[in-house]
Amino acid sequence: MSPFIDPTRASAKKLQQDKSKYDQFKKKAKAARRNVGTEESVDKSFFMELEDPMKWLSTDTKLNLAWKKILETDNEAESSFDALAFQCLQDWIEYGFGNRPGWGQPWWLYTQLCVPCCVGEPDGHWILCKVDLLDHHITIFDLTGAKTKSIQVERFRQLMHLRRLLPSIMNMCGFFSNRSEKPRGAMFTVLVSSNQMIPQQVDKCSCGVFICNYAETSIFKKGNWKWGQKEMSDFRKDMAFQIFNNSVPYKSPIDL
């Protein structure tokens, strides 16, 4: 369980007090910063952007740079890409060990993962991949529907590198050995979900927020899909508040 989830904050009175602190934080003229559990601290602009219905959720630049190296290797190897022999970056392997984030769990304890992916150039588009580690299969939840054959083919192409990278991470983090299974380097198969109950994005900037809700609904809400585009504004505000509420004041090394 994440250390940024505090069950003692459950009472309505405490919740209201915390919301007041959040409102005061956003009104401060001085640039106070918060540690939200990522590698860098953030200021109030981070929370304001989360709340803004016209803003996109951004991607991790560090991960993007590493991903481009994977693309280069994959493109050079083409069909001869050896997933089990490929030496991927240690940062990627740490996800499999359960060390990114630091309160994660080793992959070998589970059979499924939810992986958000930002695909497409130059603007990017968030989709959610439900990964079955044992069956080597990925189900795509695409919030724009992706019902046409051409879009589905494009999604398969965009996820080609992930389909090859996953077996490499699984092998190097000990997924197969810890489950007493024979290592498999076979590329993952892909299918776009045809679930008609899944809410669809209408605007052009809510894809990241949608997949956060997709993941939450799949994991915690037992497939209760009774929400949609009209709830995105409130969901953004609640997301920003919850991140703030479970963060801590940041002090730079200079201040310590």
* DSSP, total strands: 6
Describe the oligomeric state of these chains in a short phrase. Answer: single chain
Order of adjacent strands in the largest pleated sheet: 2-3-4-5
What does the radius of gyration come to?
Answer: 20 Å
Summed up, the helix count is: 9
Strand fraction: 5-15%
Share of helix, binned: 40-55%
Question: What structural category arises from helix and sheet content?
Answer: alpha+beta
**Principal-axis shape:** globular
Unreliable parts:
none
Largest sheet: 4 strands, mixed
Q: What series of H and E elements makes up the topology?
A: HEHHHEEEHHHEHHE
The averaged pLDDT comes out at 82
Please give the alpha-carbon distance between the first and last residues.
Answer: 29 Å
Organism: Dipteronia dyeriana
Family: Belongs to the peptidase C48 family.
Domain Ubiquitin-like protease family profile: 1-218
InterPro entries: Papain-like_cys_pep_sf, Peptidase_C48_C
Keywords:
single chain, 256 residues, alpha+beta, 4-stranded mixed sheet, two-stranded antiparallel ribbon, 9 helices, 6 strands, 40% helix, deSUMOylase activity
Describe this structure in words.
The protein has 256 residues and is of the alpha+beta class. It is 40% helix and 11% strand. Strand 3 (125-132) and strand 4 (137-141) form a beta hairpin. It is globular.
Layout of secondary structure:
Blueprint: H1 12-27, E1 34-35, H2 44-51, H3 61-77, H4 90-97, E2 112-119, E3 125-132, E4 137-141, H5 149-158, H6 160-172, H7 175-178, E5 189-192, H8 207-219, H9 232-245, E6 248-249
Parallel strand pairs: 4-5
Antiparallel strand pairs: 1-6, 2-3, 3-4
Helix pairs in contact: 2-9
Region (Disordered): 1-26
GO molecular function, one term: deSUMOylase activity
Domain Ubiquitin-like protease family profile: 1-218
